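Appendix C. Worked example: beta-galactosidase
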Amino acid sequence: MKFYTRIFLYSLLLTFAGRTMAQESVKQYLSGKGKDDGILWDFKVSEGMKAGEWTTIPVPSNWELQGFGKYNYGFNKEADKGKEIGSYRHRFTVDRRWKDKQVNLVFEGVMTDAQVKVNGKLVGTPHQGAFYTFSYDISKFLQWGKENLLEVEVAKHSANKSVNAAEREGDFWVFGGIFRPVFLEILPKNHIERLSVDAKADGSLRMKLHTKGTADAVAVQLYDAEGKAFGKPIHQAVQGAETWVEGTFEKPALWSAEFPNLYKAEVILSQKGKEQHRIHQQVGFRTIEVRQRDGVYINGQKIKFKGVNRHSFHPESGRTTSKALSVHDVLLMKEMNMNAVRMAHYPPDSHFLDVCDSLGLYVMNELGGWHGHYDTPTGTKLLKEMIRVSENNPSIIFWANGNEGGHNPELDATFFEQDIQKRPLIYPWAVYGGFETTHYREYNYGIGTYDHGHNIVMPTEFLHGMYDGGHGAGIEDYWKAMWANPLSAGGFLWDFQDQGIKRTDKGGILDTDGNRGADGIVGPHYEREGSFYTIKEVWSPIFFEKREMTAAFNGEFTIENRYAFTNTANCSFSYELSKLEGTSASSKTGTMASPNIAPYAKGILKVDLPADWHSYDALYIKANDSNGKEIFTWSFPISLPSRIAATKLKTAGDKVEAQETADAFLVQAGGIHYRFDKTTGLLEEVKNGKGLIPFGKGPVLQEAVNNYKSFSMRRLADTLIIESAFDKKESYNTLQWTIYPSGQLKMHVQYFPESYFTRFVGVNFDLPEKEIEGVEYMGMGPYRVWKNRIKGNRFGIWEKAYNDVATGEVPFEYPEFKGYHANMYWATFKLKSQSFRVFTDREDVFLRLYTPKEQQDTDWKNMEPTFPSGDISFMNGISAIGTKTQKPETTGPMGMKHVYYDFEKEPIRALHMQLYFDFSGQ
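Step 2, the predicted output written as structure tokens:
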């Protein structure tokens, strides 16, 4: 019998025989698996909180979060800070049946230097580097069937300067401790030591096996998601310590972020027909191709990455996370319509990568480095450790060699030597390998450079969030440019989550170290900021062209399919027509036929509306992806402000009574008393039957000259009009009040902005903040907006209780009350004493509610969140907000100031603000 025939028969026997012969790896955890199930070990820390006393600590954990040692932010480099030593002790037993096996002691992550002893003896060289899985063969140190003592001494500050430069001097919190799981790995003497997989979109499969001991054959069988065998088994003779296995599978279901199809490979090592070792490995078939001066292709399709940077983080556990947390984070990213994530700035927990595999996110995995980098011997060791545990995750599309100058080019060759897939290597914040990844380019400079450059454009950090700036503010302009540029491969926002850490030394407060850690789209406990929904809309893979709901609307929307692999026929669409107000509030719902639109193509989405659709106030279109998850819900106002205002305007009543004094116009109508300043025309006082309403001192023009002059009073039919005179030189801004017999008040202001360029324009009123309890309004909500962050809200009626929260600060409550709110139709101001309503018949009016508290900006003062004077404003134009690294005007056209023409001060060129006031309290 020929040798290969014997191998084939032995392999068949192994593949189809009972599982009783299985020699699988066994894990015995000595710690918990994450932040919620830690196992208590004995512990002592040398400095800081609880220094010098033996007690217990859960493992895994960061010791600061358990009330030990000192807290340190990365920029804190003083010599006496963050140099605690943590001493751990743990007792465990090992089964006598393992005596003939290899027992590895595995640490998935220790901050930062770890010296390990078993039963009083050093088991190997101390490990340096926090974010990497390392192990020791401790078989010869064990007492079989007896209690064993594990001792670990952990130095928070590394003895290796390059490790500190790469890991501990960056712009993020730094911690100490055994922060990832610890376990025993029990292996047969003859076993697979390492398995490297390369599965391509054409169905070709290569595996590189490193084996230890003796074996003569290996068999590989793939199984699909239902557990059914996929393709024929592969049989291969073992070729010493390193064996290549190759095979081809016909039409595999490919892996991508949209369709994360996975197979399970069962790999069986044998010797003379006897199974030696069996392992299982997830496999995703996909091909990565970088076409220079073109783009990044996955499975032959060009990809634009919609990504975010993510730290391994939780406010109560620091860098110690869990599988459940990984699932939560990936689902939240995908809810924002992201398709990519970059690891910042070190490798994550393995379970995070596994979740990216199974749920579908493209990953850039990063070797530690932040301006500083590892020396070559240390970096080589840590790089091998990183690749070894993550090389088979199909979600990993790129490797990154450090961050922002923390690159060691001497390690480049090791990336390609270790990774059989030869994935592309990125230098974040640099031009390297055909990629332009420079961070935080100003829109004009960056887009200009990108448009006229030759490299693939993929900024690994752009729009540096801080508080409410960045992220959603500016992303629409950037994404329009990125989408239109064939050389753009998208980019990654900074960053996912506010790094607000629980301070056990300060009564449990959440600390972002001032403005350094307040960079997230979501808060420390995933509180959603307004930018969350802006990103969700801007990055929606279904893009709606602008469409107005006019009488001629035929139910057709032009949409663009921005998926790379999904036909819109695989999505689902539904609609809702809504009447928003009063006893007539009602809705009609229905589904829509999903159009057949290929990826990156345009087409028509048709909604068959009932004949009376125009009688409703709003149309909502919801799109769900192929898994039934919401992509976004778009709102299209049907009723214009003029139609809604007509339902609120009440004119009938008794005669309007008026009196003119030396300094005022006094008017009474419908039980409402008004006092207008005779010189300025401003509303000075308003009262109803319940008493004084603390609203008035307006309208004061913002960014325009308050030159209302020469007021007079006249009657028109049953109304009373108080108005200023127009003069092209002296009083070109005009104010007119109309008082109806019902007591309602109409204000019309015609004005010219003072400057050609202006941050905002509108009119202001006083309403003391201490009097307000809340507001209900019709418009876009519930989140506030900026000039460069309009998208993400929904048209409707919103009720907001007063709060004084600031984005990115305790108590992390959203939506914020203060700020600009878009497309106001009406607003009811709920005061401690009573309520009143303001409404308008004009489109595109912004409601401004007070001024948010000033937050600690950087020395550059880039955010510049500017607001009008006064308390309450009704605006024709609002201001933008900057980011941590850019002023508003450098984030794109939407961030620039408004431009208004004021030639000759002709009324036809003026801006108009028309409001109606109902002070009846009804």
